[in-house]
Specification:
Length: 117
């Protein structure tokens, strides 16, 4: 992926929120994304079209599907780290946490559990 493409997909927190939704749901519609994110249908549709162009998702009729490949797995790991950093606050003595399983592999879904130590 080019730096320009990466910059475009991660340009705003709204885009990142939609990207995370797409990455953890095996199939979804634009309406699903609108309902989950509260963003306008036009904004969501334009962003999904960008993800289609970059081969991050596939479309079949009105359904979209996340594509699993090394690049999307790496991006999903980055999204996972960002998500965990926003919800887990470590005590001062902790240097970090260990994440295992699908979250660490970048293969997690909306139904995945979180394995940490």
């Amino acid at each position: 992926m080019s730096d320009k493409a990466l910059s475009e997909i991660l340009k705003t927190s709204d885009r990142i929120f939609i990207l995370r939704y797409a990455a953890v749901n095996s199939s979804f519609t634009a309406t699903d994304v609108v309902n989950a994110t509260g963003k306008s249908k036009g904004f969501v549709s334009r962003y999904l079209h960008l993800l289609l162009e970059l081969n991050y998702i596939l479309a079949d009729g009105r359904k979209y599907f996340w594509i699993e490949n090394p690049e999307t797995k790496a991006l999903k790991r980055l999204l996972n780290i960002r998500f965990l950093s926003s919800i887990i606050f470590l005590p001062g003595w902790a240097g970090g946490i260990g994440v295992y399983g699908s979250f660490a592999d970048g293969t997690n879904s909306a139904k995945s559990d979180l394995d940490v130590s």
